[in-house]
Amino acid sequence: MASTFKVGDTVGSRHGVSKIKRIEIVEPGQKECGIEVNEYYWSLKNQVVVDLENGHWAYGDTIRQELTSCGRNTPYNPWGL
What residues form DSSP beta bridges with 52? Predict the structure, then answer.
């Protein structure tokens, strides 16, 4: 599993599965006015807010890494559907 996530990666959240549109490092309890980055560490995800392509945003500690097949950033589908 990758140690970082970046803009364009697919993640899961309470809003469903979506690609990351923007990553912003914020102060604890804040949701905007932070520092925009293109890539960040999974181990420090509680320090960021991500904007998602589905129109929602999420605190970093609420996103999860989606399983991928063959190293591609696509949802893993063991049945090939």
Answer: 20
Q: Give exposure, 15-48, as e/b (b: 16+ Cβ within 10 Å).
A: eeebebeebbebeeeeeeeeeeeeebeeeebebb
The count of structural domains within the chain is 1
pLDDT digits (tens, 9 = 90+) for 48-67: 999 999 999 999 999 999 86
pLDDT tens profile 8-20? 999 999 999 999 9
* C-alpha to C-alpha distance for 41 and 44, rounded to whole angstroms: 5
Tell me the residue range of the domain where 49 lies: 4-65
Does residue 37 belong to any structural domain of this protein? yes
For residue 60, is it left (φ>0), alpha (ψ between -120 and 50) or beta?
alpha
